[in-house]
Write a structure and sequence with these properties.
alpha+beta, 5 helices, three-stranded antiparallel beta sheet, seven-stranded mixed beta sheet, 204 residues, 16% helix
Length: 204
C-alpha cells in the first residue's frame, strides 16, 4: 500500500497512528564513532559505524501462520517491512526506541551476546513501567563496507521487551556466550574470525 513502507515513514519522519503523531527522527540513519582501546600490541584507534534502524524497532509482526487483523487494530498502524510483511505499529516499542541511539553510541563498552545467527544481541537493564526484571533486547547486524577502511554498517534489526507480541519464547543465553562490544567491532573491521565458545566461528 502506497506510503505505508518503512522508508516512506522514515522520509516523513513520523507515523500517525491511534490519533497521534509519533516521531521517527531519532531513528534516521546516522554515524557513530566507536573508540577502540589499545590491546595486544595494537594502538588505540576508532571505527565509524553507519547506523540504520529497521521497522521492527517500533512494530510487531504476525504470529506464524496468521495475519494481523488491521480492522481491529486500525489500518493507520500498518507498516510494511523490508520483506513486504505487514506489521503493526507498537506504541510501547516506539517509546523504548528512544534509547537506541545512545545504546549504539556506547556499544564499544557494552557486552554483546552470540545468537547463533548472523546477528548479535545487547541487553539494556530494567525498564520503567515494565515488570521487575524486564530487559530490552536489541538485535543488530554488523557488516564491513567494501572499500571503506575502519567503517562498518550497523543495522538495528529489532528491539523489544518480551510481551505477547514478541517472536517466540525467551532465549536462555549462557554466561560465557558474551563478547565485548569493541572486540566485536574491531574484529569485524579487520575481517578477523569471531568465535563463540559454543557455536564456533560465526559466519558474517
Amino acid at each position: 500500500m502506497r506510503g505505508k513502507s518503512w522508508p516512506d515513514y522514515l522520509a516523513k519522519g513520523r507515523i500517525t497512528a491511534a490519533g497521534s503523531d509519533w516521531t521517527l527522527t531519532h531513528l534516521q540513519p546516522h554515524e557513530v564513532t566507536i573508540p577502540i582501546p589499545e590491546s595486544k600490541g595494537m594502538s588505540a584507534e576508532e571505527v565509524k559505524l553507519n547506523v540504520s534502524y529497521a521497522s521492527h524497532c517500533v512494530s510487531y509482526g504476525p504470529k506464524k501462520g496468521a495475519a494481523i487483523d488491521f480492522e481491529i487494530c486500525g489500518w493507520d498502524h500498518l507498516i510494511i517491512d523490508h520483506r513486504g510483511v505487514r506489521r503493526a505499529f507498537h506504541p510501547a516499542r516506539h517509546a523504548l526506541s528512544h534509547q537506541l541511539p545512545e545504546i549504539i553510541a556506547t556499544l564499544g563498552a557494552r557486552k554483546c551476546l552470540f545468537t547463533n545467527h548472523a546477528n548479535w544481541l545487547t541487553v539494556e537493564g530494567p525498564q520503567l513501567d515494565y515488570p521487575a526484571g524486564s530487559m530490552y533486547e536489541v538485535y543488530f547486524n554488523l557488516k564491513r563496507i567494501e572499500g571503506e577502511k575502519r567503517t562498518l554498517s550497523l543495522l538495528v534489526e529489532s528491539a523489544y521487551i518480551r510481551d505477547e507480541t514478541a517472536p517466540g519464547p525467551q532465549t536462555k543465553f549462557k554466561k560465557q556466550e558474551k563478547v565485548k562490544g569493541w572486540t566485536l567491532i574491531i574484529k569485524t573491521a579487520r575481517n578477523e574470525p569471531i568465535r563463540s565458545p559454543t557455536f564456533g566461528q560465526i559466519k558474517r
